[in-house]
Write a structure and sequence with these properties.
By secondary structure, the chain is α/β, with parallel strands linked by helices. The chain contains nine helices and eight strands. The protein has a single domain (5-218), classed as Rossmann fold. It has helices at residues 16-27, 35-47, 55-63, 92-101, 105-118, 131-135, 149-159, 168-184, 206-220, and strands spanning 5-9, 30-33, 67-72, 75-80, 83-84, 124-128, 141-146, 197-200. A hairpin with a 2-residue loop joins strand 4 and strand 5 (83-84). The protein is globular, with a radius of gyration of 17 Å. The termini are close together.
Amino acid sequence: MKPLLITIDGPAGAGKTTVSKALAGELGYVYIDTGALYRGVAHEMLVRQVDKDDEKGLAALLADLDLRFERRAVDLRLFSAGMDITDRIRTPAITMLASAASAKPAVRNSLLELQRRLGSEKSAVFEGRDMGTVVFPEADVKFFLTADLHVRARRRYEELAGTCVGSISDVEMDMQKRDANDSGRDIAPLKPARDAVLIDSTGKSVKDVVDEMLAVISDAAGL
């Protein structure tokens, strides 16, 4: 099969990360979590105490930004200025700030080149929110993965078990707010690409979703 560039977009809690990793594993492809890059920016904003509305401060931060992925065993780790921040970027505060930062043109432009460079050799599965619409509009296969809001909130709540996330209702409210922020922003809003294959993961196992994607990929590759 010829090398393909595959994108998987969708809202939080739809199962993108688990499915993307599993799909990449089945294909022998590289998995890239582009949301981690925005979380990396948010992490640096918190560390350097740069407000999301401080345009000058944000521009200075981006000019000095040093984010990169490194493969460690089976994991792809995110480093900022040589420091592994992978385990620091999954907090609710980082999540909400990353959503706000992703609406900033300067942030999106800064990360666009990096993402496209990572995808230049294909044989990769890119997970995000605007992979198929903005970053890789010419991707070979595009998916938009979604699920019922209550299901997505429960998944995220279970994923964050043991951290200070409040109740499942709090998680659902935060998720609903983030959905609105991501879908309503002027720049690169969260939406399916015109040629994306829509998959609802509600009530489906990871294997079910991956098998469905593999069937689409086989058709696209002419197998």
